[in-house]
From TrEMBL:
Signal peptide: none annotated. NCBIfam families: CocE_NonD. The keyword Hydrolase applies. This is CocE/NonD family hydrolase. GO terms for molecular function: hydrolase activity. Pfam families: Peptidase_S15 (PF02129), PepX_C (PF08530). Residues 318-552 form the Xaa-Pro dipeptidyl-peptidase C-terminal domain. Keywords: Hydrolase.
Amino acid sequence: MTHMAPVILEQPPLLAVRPPETVSMRTRDGLRLDADLYRPDGVGPWPVLLLRLTCGRRTAMTSHYAHPRWYAARGYVVVVQDVRGRGTSEGRFRPFEAEREDGADAVAWAASLPGSNGTVGMYGSGYAGMAQLLAMAERPDALRAVVPALAGWDVFTDWATEGGAFRLADAMGWALHCAAESARRLEDGAAYRALLEAIRSLPLDDEIPSRPRVLRDYARHCHYDDWLTTPGPGGSWDELSPRNALSGGIGEVSVLQIGGWYDPRLTGTLAAHDALSAGGDGTVRLLVGPWDRHGVAVHAGLDRLTPSDVPSFDAVQLGWFERFLKGEMNGAERGGPIRLFDALERRWRDLPVLPPAAHPLHLSSDGLATRRNGALSGDAPDEAFLDVLVHDPRDPVPTVGGHAAPDAGPHDRAAADARPDVAVYDTAPLTAPLTLSGQAALEIWVEADAPSFDVSAVLSAVLPDGRVLPLSQGHARVEPGGAQRPMPVALRALCATLPAGSALRLSLAGSCFPAYPVNPGTGAEPGETRLVDAQPITLLIHGGGARPSRLLLPARV
């Protein structure tokens, strides 16, 4: 059990729960938002928990959390609301556009419901997590505690793009779900059937892979075209993002963020922790565990995880709400501001801050890193080297494990690293266990024979049994005229203890499909690139001498 899970010596008896009621409110611009209300059948008043959803309030996000009855039985009024334009709520759904004002209105309304004691907490994952952060920007008086999970911080860099590349599989999958819900609300049966089919099998082999026909035909039902074509960062993206909305601080709200090593929005979650810690008077904590975007705890191919290893979201946030909505002195806030789950050692580590990427490992090679002859070492090579890597768009390097794949997690990528279009750099086997806990980065000297190209970097643990498990990943797209020397590739933070006899591996490739679109090499936008347009790209990876390429880690190897 973590320090953020409830610490209650005597569990009070569970309360009976009344049958759910459908209740409605009006937003400040007059739209009706519908919600399901769950109340204890007992003597109140009670704190309110508010969950605001895009996926339909009747689901109650039970894919990630216990049913609202579970919370109501423990002494909370629970409100599960359809956001604007979803479920049965009025209005048109445009992602994130109305969540600041609507969220604040919903908090004030929920605080006034029968059985409420006037204090409100919010919870939810993904979009529902971002909705909490945006609601905080209005500083609603009744809001005391929030637990945003797997949410991010900036819509452009956490939801739409990464390293300048469009988040193809992630953004397309969510857009299809949004479009299907819009089609259902309008009773457009043909669109609904076509979109459901595309959800079950992403149409990535379409004539225009990043803008498949099903999303062109039903563009009116979702935001996908806007996200694909609106330049950023800044501009209209800032108007949607908690990063911009909360620049003035958060007041006295106590915030527990939950992040996942295999969630695509982890980098934003870490940035949010830094900003919220500096701009609030309440308690701010961060918990990062082995969760994917669906809130599933995935294991690294060792023994399976148990509840004693990784508590549920419900156990973690119940302790937070008991502490900050009911005043129970349960120790939910004790320990360091940051708690990270060690992905390989399966233990929790408390940190005051996230250590920076400060310790270099230099790339070296005899020119055959694509034949697994590359190396990583603490000493910079005296002699310059050149590795040549050819990206063939007809057979792009696939996304294997990590955070960006539809099937995310610590999946063995040994087969991918054996491909001739992947350059591999290994350390010598470790003589003692090594803990890497903090930020990571890559500085690489690279050029190409095309005006635009991609660099995909994966940092993995090569275990003594031969498995290659991804620990961190980064992706960068170089647009025409935008190359930098050396080129920075932002890798994700990590926490893992490598056992003696294992090694670290850096894998470099020119693609990571379908996480990101295949770069055609022409500089054309993804939504305008046909499958037939993409050309092979030759990448030249330099190192040593006057052009040292290096990996930066949070600990010395």
